[in-house]
Amino acid sequence: PLVNPGWLSNRGSFLVPAGAKRVVHSFVIDPRLVLFFLHPDLDTSHGLVVHSALLHMHRLGKAGRIAVERGRREILLSIRRWDFHWQREYFLASPEPLALGDQLSIRCEHDNSAAHQPLIGGKRPRPRTRTWGENSSDEMCIGFLYVSAR
C-alpha cells in the first residue's frame, strides 16, 4: 500500500471541506520503509521493481496519480477523470526498476462541490465535509503497488 500513515491514524488530517471544488492530498515515501513493516525478510538492498499499480478513492475523487520521484517525476499511473466504478489494477507495459533512494508519490484530487455530489435516490445531497474512512460516503487516497526485489 502507498498511503500516508497520518491519514490512517488521524482521520481529521485528511479533510475534503464541504463545497470545495479542488482539494489535493499528496504524499511521498521511500518504499523500503513500507516494505520493512509488511515484509521484513524482503531483500531491498539492490532496489525494487514495480509491476502494477492501482489507485483508490471514493465518489468525490476527480483525478489521481502514482509516480516515482528520482530528481524528476516519472508517472506510473495517471487517471485524469476518476470514476469510482472503474477501479482496477494496471500492469505496466514494462516493469519499472526502483533504485535505492527513489521514492514513490501519490496525489489525489477531490471535488466536493454541489455539482459533483453522487446521485442518491436520483438527488444530489448537499456537500458536507468528508474525512478519511472506509464507507463510500467518506474519502480516501491510497495506492497499491505490486513490487518485487530486484
- Tell me about the largest β-sheet: 4 strands, antiparallel
Indicate the structural class: mainly beta
Q: What portion of the residues fall into strands of 2 or more residues?
A: 35-45%
Shape: elongated
Q: Calculate the terminal CA-CA distance, rounded to whole Å.
A: 19 Å
Helix content: under 10%
Low-confidence stretches: none
Widest sheet: strand order? Answer: 1-6-3-4
Give the mean pLDDT: 95
Radius of gyration: 16 Å
Q: How many strands appear in the DSSP assignment?
A: 7
Q: Can you write the helix and strand succession as a string?
A: HEHEEEEEE
Number of helices: 2
Give your account of this protein's structure.
This protein has 150 residues and is mainly β. The chain has 2 helices and 7 strands, in the order H-E-H-E-E-E-E-E-E. A hairpin with a 3-residue loop joins strand 3 (61-69) and strand 4. The relative contact order is 0.33. The model has no long low-confidence stretch (mean pLDDT 95).
How would the blueprint of this fold be written?
Blueprint: H1 5-9, E1 23-29, H2 31-38, E2 48-56, E3 61-69, E4 73-79, E5 90-98, E6 103-110, E7 142-149
Antiparallel strand pairs: 1-6, 2-5, 2-7, 3-4, 3-6
